[in-house]
Design a protein that fits this description.
Layout lengths: L1 H21 L2 H24 L4 H11 L9 H17 L8 H13 L3 H22 L5 H83 L4 H26 L23 H10 L3 E7 L7 H21 L5 E8 L3 E8 L16 H12 L3 E6 L5 E8 L7
Parallel strand pairs: 1-2
Antiparallel strand pairs: 2-3, 3-5, 4-5
Helix pairs in contact: 2-3, 3-4, 4-5, 4-6, 5-6, 5-7, 6-7, 7-8, 7-10, 10-11
GO molecular function: kinase activity
Catalytic activity: ATP + protein L-histidine = ADP + protein N-phospho-L-histidine
EC number: 2.7.13.3
């Protein structure tokens, strides 16, 4: 068994070596030249008993140009056809005339210019006619012409087919490479979009919850001596808000609750929407900001996506009030369902402190996220100071671009 396995391994090795050698174009070119040369010499010796200098010279001249048939198919065909014509003029028939067929095949295989290919086919056919006229017996001229014409046509057609097949394989590989590149790009874009979505949601959830929790904690710290019961209630509200934020973050990231203190059942409630705006406003009121919530117009049937966008925009605007307008005492949240548009407006009665951060700088992540949410539904965001003081955030969302339920 060991001897048989070694023989098998040796055979596989040498077959691999032979395949690598054969796959090299220049090796095949040299082999083709030697084969044509040997065929011509053996045929000449068989017919005449010896090899003449003229026959050997023609055989060598017809064979050597085949070395360049891949790189220069048109010049090689012209050279070989010219030598074949000179051979015809000197009345020196040789089997090496097969080099004309090989050059014609190479021209069809490697030359893209149709005029050259057609011209070469006509030249080869002319050579067939001349050879039949001079060297074919009188009673076999038609048969010889048909056979030689078929041989020329076959050589040319096989060459053209080889070029077409090679071009097809190249195009298939290019399409596969392009498809793979596009797939990778689509995957990268999908990852970037998902990261942007998670970043936007995390910002809205964490920033709002922390801002309200800080305000509640400050209120509890201020009231703990004068009204301990109110302080306890306020801290309970902060704790509840923290747990809600943690649950939203878990839902967003798809995490399962682990063991321990936080191993409570994961809330599977849907994403917040318009119905949860009252709770949102209530939490901010509990943080000490007086808020008036107005809704006007008939409410259309809105898809969860647009409802989440409205909720997050109101949430971000109120968070900015708590973060950037600490002296604000009143805020107004207005939601108007008009004809073909939904208007969301959040305003407060305090400007940002001098030198402090402005709610909307173009680099701001929060309102930049609001702009992105509005743009998804073909809407817009306007941010700026009110004429009578304070700050206003207004969003317009076209209803006709909203996917309704």
């Amino acid at each position: 068994m060991d001897v048989a396995a070694k023989i098998q391994d040796l055979a596989v090795h040498w077959l691999g070596v032979l395949r690598r050698v054969v796959d090299r174009p220049y090796v095949m070119d040299i082999a083709m030249v030697l084969l044509v040369l040997a065929f011509a010499i053996s045929e000449s010796v068989h017919d005449e008993g010896h090899l003449t200098a003229v026959a050997g010279g023609f055989a060598l001249a017809l064979s050597l140009p085949l070395l360049w048939r891949r790189r220069r198919p048109a010049p090689v065909f012209v050279v070989i056809a010219s030598i074949a014509l000179l051979q015809w003029l000197t009345e020196t028939p040789l089997a090496s005339d097969v080099a004309v067929l090989i050059a014609l095949h190479a021209l069809g295989s490697y030359e893209n210019r149709r005029r050259l290919v057609v011209g070469a086919a006509l030249v080869a056919e002319l050579g067939v006619v001349l050879a039949v006229v001079r060297w074919s017996p009188s009673d076999e001229k038609i048969t010889s012409a048909i056979l030689l014409t078929g041989t020329v046509t076959a050589a040319l057609v096989l060459g053209v087919y080889s070029r077409t097949r090679r071009a097809y394989l190249v195009s298939v590989l290019e399409r596969a490479t392009t498809a793979e590149r596009q797939r990778d790009q689509q995957a990268q874009l999908a990852v970037a979009d998902e990261r942007a979505r998670i970043s936007r949601e995390m910002h809205d959830i964490v920033a709002h919850s922390l801002s309200v929790m800080i305000a509640l904690s400050d209120g509890a710290a201020a009231a703990i001596r004068s009204d301990p019961d109110a302080a306890v209630t306020t801290m309970g509200q902060a704790s509840t808000l923290g747990r809600q934020a943690l649950g939203e973050v878990r839902r967003l990231l798809g995490d399962e609750p682990g063991p321990g203190v936080l191993a409570e059942p994961l809330d599977l409630a849907p994403q917040p929407g318009i119905a949860q705006l009252d709770d949102l406003v209530g939490r901010v009121r509990a943080a000490g900001l007086s808020i008036e919530f107005r809704v006007s117009g008939p409410e259309p049937a809105l898809a969860p996506g647009i409802q989440l966008a409205i909720y997050r925009m109101v949430q971000e605007a109120l968070t900015n009030v708590l973060k950037h307008a600490p002296a604000a005492t009143r805020a107004t949240v207005s939601l108007h369902y008009g004809s073909g548009v939904i208007d969301i407006q959040v305003e407060n009665d305090d400007d940002p402190p001098p030198g402090g951060p402005v709610p909307e700088a173009e680099t701001g992540r929060g309102l930049a996220g609001m702009r992105e949410r509005a743009a998804v539904f073909g809407g817009s965001i306007e941010v700026g100071r009110r004429a009578d003081g304070g700050w206003r955030v207004v969003s317009h969302l076209p209803v006709d671009q909203v996917e309704t339920r």
